[in-house]
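Annotated sample (chain length 213).
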Amino acid sequence: MRSTRRPRTPAAITAVVLLCAVAVSACGSDSRVGDDAATASPTVAATATAAGSTPSGPAGYAGLLEAQAEQYGITDPPVVEVVRVVEPSEQPALIEDCMAEAGFESDGGGWEVPMDQKDALGLAMYVCYAQYPIDDKYLTPLTDLQREKIYRYWVDVRSPCLEDMGYEIPDPPTLESWLAGGEDWAPHYYLGHLSPDEAAEAQTRCPENPPDL
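Output written by the structure step:
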C-alpha cells in the first residue's frame, strides 16, 4: 500500500498561514518561522463542502489570493496568467511542481529558505496559487442537506475508490460531528503527496464530488 500523509497547511512567511486563514477549512497551526530561516508548506485549498461557509471580503478564489498577498506583504500583486482551473485534490502537486520551476525545491512537505529569501518565496507561492486556482464552485456555501450528500458520497464512494487505488484514507468522523465542524475530514486531505499525474488519475477514477451536485 502506498504511504500517505495529510498535507500540512501553507504557512505565511512571517507567522500565520497562506491559504489557511483565507480558505474555508483544512486549517491548522503548522507554520514555523525560525531566527534565520523561513518555511512554508502546501495544502489543498479547502472547499466549502466541509465548513459550509465562505471567506469574507472579495468573492471566491480572488478573495483568497487577495488575503494571501496581504499576509505575504505583497503590496503590488503581479498580474498572473491562469494556466488552468483545477480540482482541490490536484492543487498541492501542481503547486509543488510550480515552485520547483521557480527555484524552490520542496523537501517533501514544504520549503525552507534563508530569511533573506522569504519575500521571493512568498511571491513565488502567490504566483503559483494564482496560476492554478480552485474553481469558485468549491467556495460556494452549501446547505446542510448538500453537505450531508457530499459526506455520504465521500464515505460510501470516493474513499473506497481511493483505497482500491492503493491509498490509505483514515476513517471518517460521524456525520453529526462533521456537520458541526468538530472534526475536519475529507478524502483529498490525504492525497497531498501525489504527483500531478497521480492526482489527475485519482480525480478521473474517483471524482471529488457527486456528479449531480
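Annotation: The beta strands are 37-40, 111-114.
Annotation: Helices lie at 19-22, 48-51, 60-72, 91-101, 118-131, 144-164, 175-180, 196-205.
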